[in-house]
Design a protein that fits this description.
Helix 4 crosses helix 21 and helix 15 packs antiparallel against helix 16. The longest helix is centred in the middle third of the chain and has 33 residues. With 638 residues, the protein is an alpha+beta fold. Strand 4 and strand 5 form a beta hairpin.
């Protein structure tokens, strides 16, 4: 249930942003949930009750979501202001809803204890290594995401507070029995029918289409006979490896590089450190007092019943975590520290092993250093060359001349469509930029150059010149004669099958045996249908329904018919004549025991989600948001 609530609270911004675009037509910031923000300090972007969202926090979140949207669009062009306004509208909606819940939690006295906060964090998979919480991993994740530890702890505390408020609502949701029974009946009621299948292929067509009919079929299917737009492309590529080859680097330069970067090839001394965490200093002191000579943390944990030992991994003197654990890094191997306090509680530390400093020899790293030097030089060279390329493109210099002057490459693609295929249907090789290349090529006008684009590996650039555009072109009608005749014949057979099926239905009486009709007319094949649900499946997994005898039209009419009714409906291969034989009411006893419970669970979840929506909306109404409109407008305009 916790996952259910979290999923409700953390809907994907990538999905919501599309809905946010729609919100523009209603005025994102005029929907009545915000009040004037002139009294807010510049450092505060949003305030709900006593809960504040800082300007720098909103800016960071806003930038991340705009970048995420652009990446998801894969190079497609959009109105930048529209993207920003839609993103900001969705982001503000999420933040105000979250802030309203936090404000309500404060007023209601919902409190998250240190134990709950700690247990939640150490159980998060993202902070675990080999199934155990890793303090090193914890710090790495926070640093890589530019999140300060106090801010992260406060966000987790807020998440737990919101869950504590909303989870009881979801858990308490009840699905009414009449609703469960109605849905069960709808899903599990079945029909049994007798059927005759009349394949369209059994109907004879003895003539060819007239010129008018031939042309009518061609016009009707013109989209199928039209080749897509093709483009001839001239591609200029500029890569780092083309400009600076590793083999061009002299050994003397490599040795100088090695000496200047000694720290890169030196692995500093490290210590593997483990810890036990306690809520209070008294608990840590009591556990430390139980240590006997030679005891390690595992032994102390067993005596003090303090939970599992947490391995912090190998730490060096410059590791960020060392600043947090204080004098623990100075401990001799296998000695237990005195209690040390951090933001997560009180700790006992132990150095479990030590590794001495190691320096890689020049010979061992020479090849790698050569590649590093070449990469560094190439990065500068390719950037310098890219500016020259842009200047030359602006001056209208042909790509071939640009490539010759800067050391780039020219590739010609004779014809490619938007699916990356040539006129013969073969894939056109595209190692340059599989994600954005085609979008760039088809957004560039004929005779024009695209802007200079980064290659995916960030080791170079490319640009596309659209040499020629061949628009979508219908194939000549005479070249398509066999296909058109086949289509016309198929349409004629279908029409004849419909007419024949109508005659058969008109002549079927109450005493007519459909199986006897199939015996007399070899075009027909008889088979019972069902019991089938309204979804075209059997209730039991081992009961298969003949796919040739079901279609949306057949199922719709079967479940509207009364026993004895006869009708004809289209199926994939022709026409199906159906006489409803029996309506089988749903029966819980005839189905797996879990079916009814699964329906109840689904309904409870849906009702719980609806209740959470209503509760969250009520809190938003109770705690209106005060918004710093000037700050937000500036972010969008920046």
């Amino acid at each position: 249930m916790m996952e259910f609530v979290r999923a409700r609270l953390k809907d994907s911004i990538a999905i919501k942003i599309f809905l946010g675009v729609l919100a523009l037509s209603f005025g994102i910031f005029g929907v009545g949930d915000f009040v004037g923000g002139n009294s807010l300090a510049p450092s505060i972007a949003l305030k709900v009750g006593s809960t504040e969202v800082r300007t720098d926090t909103l800016q960071r979140r806003f930038t991340q979501e705009v970048d995420r949207f652009r990446q998801a669009m894969g190079g497609q062009q959009f109105d930048d202001t529209m993207i920003k306004r839609a993103t900001m509208g969705t982001l503000l909606r999420n933040l105000t809803g979250t802030a309203a819940l936090m404000a309500a939690g404060k007023d209601m006295g919902v409190e998250v204890t240190r134990d709950e906060l700690r247990d939640t964090i150490i159980k998060l998979p993202v902070f675990q290594v080999d199934g155990k919480f890793s303090q090193t991993r914890f710090n790495e994740v926070l640093m890589s995401n530019n999140i300060q530890e106090p801010l992260f702890l406060e966000e987790v505390r807020g998440d737990l507070s919101r869950s504590a408020m909303l989870q009881p609502v979801a858990v308490s949701a009840i699905a009414p029995k009449y609703l469960i029974d109605s849905l069960f009946d709808f899903r599990n009621e079945t029909r049994v029918a007798d059927t005759l299948l009349l394949p369209a292929s059994a109907m004879p067509v003895e003539k060819l289409p007239t010129d008018e009919q031939f042309k009518a079929v061609y016009d009707k299917h013109i989209a199928e006979f039209t080749s897509p737009e093709y483009r001839k492309l001239i591609v200029l590529t500029l890569t780092a490896n083309d400009l600076v080859k590793p083999e061009s680097i002299e050994e003397s330069e490599i040795k100088a590089y090695y000496d200047a970067n000694a720290a890169r090839y030196t692995k500093p001394a490290s210590k593997n450190i483990s810890q036990l965490i306690f809520d209070t200093k008294a608990q840590a002191d009591a556990a430390r007092a139980q240590a006997a000579p030679g005891d390690n943390l595992a032994a102390i944990a067993t005596k003090a019943k303090a939970g599992g030992v947490i391995d912090l991994g190998a730490l060096t003197a410059t590791s960020p975590l060392v600043k947090t654990i204080g004098d623990a890094f100075k401990l001799p191997a296998h000695e237990i520290s005195q209690p040390i306090q951090t933001p997560l509680g009180w700790h006992l530390f132990e150095v479990t092993s030590e590794t001495a400093e190691h320096v890689d020899s020049f010979e061992a790293v020479k090849d790698a250093a050569r590649k590093n030097i070449a990469a560094d030089k190439a990065a500068d060279a390719v950037y310098e060359a890219s500016t020259r390329v842009e200047d030359a493109m602006a001056a209208g210099t042909p790509f071939a001349d640009i490539a010759k002057s800067v050391g780039g490459h020219i590739t010609t693609i004779e014809a490619v469509n938007q699916d990356g295929k040539d006129p013969k249907g073969a894939n056109v090789p595209n190692e340059i930029d599989p994600k954005n290349f085609l979008a760039t090529a088809f957004q560039t006008a004929e005779g024009k150059d695209s802007r200079l684009m980064d290659t995916p590996a960030r080791d170079g650039y490319y640009a596309v010149h659209v040499e020629k555009v061949t628009p979508p072109t219908p194939k000549p009608i005479e070249e398509l004669r066999p296909q058109i005749v086949a289509l016309w014949e198929a349409e004629q057979r279908t029409a004849l099958a419909e007419a024949e099926a109508a005659k058969l239905v008109a002549n079927i009486g109450a005493s007519t045996q459909l199986s006897a009709l199939a015996t007399a007319d070899k075009r027909l094949s008889y088979a019972p249908l069902g019991p089938t649900t309204r979804f075209g499946t059997g209730l039991q997994s081992d009961h298969l329904i003949d796919a040739q005898r079901v279609s949306p039209d057949v199922l719709d009419r079967v479940f509207k018919a009364k026993p004895g009714d006869v009708f004809a409906a289209k199926v994939s291969s022709g026409m199906l004549i159906v006489r409803l034989k029996e309506i089988v009411e749903s029966s819980p006893e005839a189905l797996p025991a879990g079916d009814l419970q699964q329906i109840e669970l689904t309904l409870r979840n849906e009702i719980g989600s609806n209740l959470i929506d209503q509760m969250a909306k009520a809190f938003e109404d109770r705690y209106p948001a005060e918004m710093n409109q000037k700050i937000i407008d500036a972010m969008i305009a920046r």
